[in-house]
Amino acid sequence: MAIPTGLTNADAQRSSRASANPPEGDEDVTAAAFLFRTLGDPTRLLILRHLARGEHRVVDLMSHLGLAQSTVSGHLACLRDCGLVRSRARGRASLYSLARPELLDLFDATESFLEATGERVVLHHTEVRARTGHEHGTGHDHHAGHEHSAADDIGEASTAEPHRPPNHRRAQHPGMELGHEKPEPQA
């Protein structure tokens, strides 16, 4: 079995043991499992939530999240390997943005699902959604003097083969919220 990009031998062995004999017709769920595993990390969701508002440099994300450069860069590498974010050079810095507008649709579906189960999570904000021609696109970049919008970034379709995420340890960062709150009781 070839090891997907970004996975160690141990990851591939665990994955291969867990899915050695998937039920007939269920072989195609592996890509979805990798995606959900990547999105299952709170720090990566926070990074994606910030990128939904526009391009960010690593230093900007460090400031917003209060995390070390190595932590932010590691999570961005995982997100990039999964095809969720992309980067472009600007001077000596790299600017990161969402790679696909469909991610915002997934955020909307997640918000709706969790609200239906009694939780309220805000993964991206309504004012961000209205800034582009795409119903759920973004276009806001809150870094002054920046002429390139996130809508430009996520509007281009990627034809590259999706990468598999590396096995990042689950980050534990107390006090980092995803906008998680219980819905108000309705009278």
Secondary structure layout plus pairing:
Layout: H1 9-18, H2 29-39, H3 42-51, E1 56-57, H4 58-65, H5 69-81, E2 85-90, E3 93-98, H6 102-116, E4 120-121, H7 126-129, H8 150-155, E5 180-181
Antiparallel strand pairs: 1-3, 2-3, 4-5
Q: Give the oligomeric state of the chains in this entry, treating copies of one chain as homo and distinct chains as hetero.
A: single chain
Mean pLDDT: 70
Principal-axes geometry comes out as: globular
In this structure, how is the largest beta sheet organized? 3 strands, antiparallel
Instruction: Output the number of helix runs.
Output: 8
Strand order of the largest sheet: 1-3-2
How would you describe what is shown here?
The chain has 187 residues and is mostly helical. It contains 8 helices and 5 strands, in the order αααβααββαβααβ. It has a 3-stranded antiparallel β-sheet with strand order 1-3-2. The chain has a two-stranded antiparallel sheet with strand order 4-5. A hairpin with a 2-residue loop joins strand 2 (85-90) and strand 3 (93-98). The protein is globular, with a radius of gyration of 17 Å. The chain starts with 8 loop residues before the first helix and ends in a 6-residue tail after the last strand. Residues 1-26, 132-187 are annotated as: Disordered. GO terms for molecular function: DNA binding; DNA-binding transcription factor activity. Residues 24-118 form the HTH arsR-type domain. It comes from Kineosporia babensis. Keywords: DNA-binding, Transcription, Transcription regulation.
